[in-house]
Structure formats: C-alpha cells, structure tokens
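Let's practice the habit of predicting before peeking. Look at the sequence and jot down your guess about where helices and strands might fall. Then scroll down.
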Amino acid sequence: KRQQVFRMSRLEGMSNERIAAELGMHKDTVYQYITKALLFLKVYMEEHSKDTLFVILMLAHLQK
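Done guessing? Here is the structure:
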C-alpha cells in the first residue's frame, strides 16, 4: 500500500485527500505512508550511493 500511495502522490500528483478517498483510508495514514516511503528512499540512496555513482561513471565511460 505504501508504494501505491507514494506513486499516486508523487507520480500522479494526487492530493493526500484524494488518495485517502480513493483507497478508503484516513488522510493521516496517507501522510504516514508517504513519510515512510521518503525515509526508505533516503536511507536506500545513502546506502547505495557509492554503487550508483560507480555504475553512472562506468556507463559514461562506455559511451565515449
């Protein structure tokens, strides 16, 4: 559900109120799901940023 709420919010641009109405949940729950999803993404990017940077540099090198 958290991923679905995040996609609806960030990719489809829906308001928390609209998401809550469509999914039948309280708007505070929607807010909590989005907050948790953003925290997860932040931690994931921090943990994998070196790997991501390495891949980007390798791809850039291959395109030369």
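How did you do? Residues 57 and 63 are 10 Å apart (CA to CA).
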